[in-house]
Write a structure and sequence with these properties.
The two termini are 18 Å apart. With 78 residues, the protein is mainly α. Helices cover 55% and strands 0% of the residues. The radius of gyration is 22 Å and the shape is flat.
């Protein structure tokens, strides 16, 4: 089983590899000005849709936590 140090090292090296592979530095990304007319107009969503999407997301998060942390019985040690 991996210990915490190995996991953090793996995540760090993965981040470095993805950063190198992207080939774009942060200062090369162009952001249009806030008053640009090329932006899409905001669309107000109904409150019931916002609540439904939030409830669905929280439900899925709860199911994942249950599945990975609480659903399996503890193994017996010999």
């Amino acid at each position: 089983m991996l210990n915490q140090r190995q996991i953090l090292g793996s995540l760090g090296s993965l981040g470095i590899m993805l950063g190198i592979a992207s080939g774009v530095r942060a200062n090369q990304i162009s952001i249009p000005p806030a008053n640009s007319t090329a932006q899409f107009p905001p669309i107000e969503q109904p409150l019931s849709l916002k609540i439904g999407v939030t409830a669905g997301g929280l439900t899925l998060i709860g199911l994942e936590l249950w599945w990975f942390l609480f659903s399996k019985k503890q193994s017996k040690t010999r």
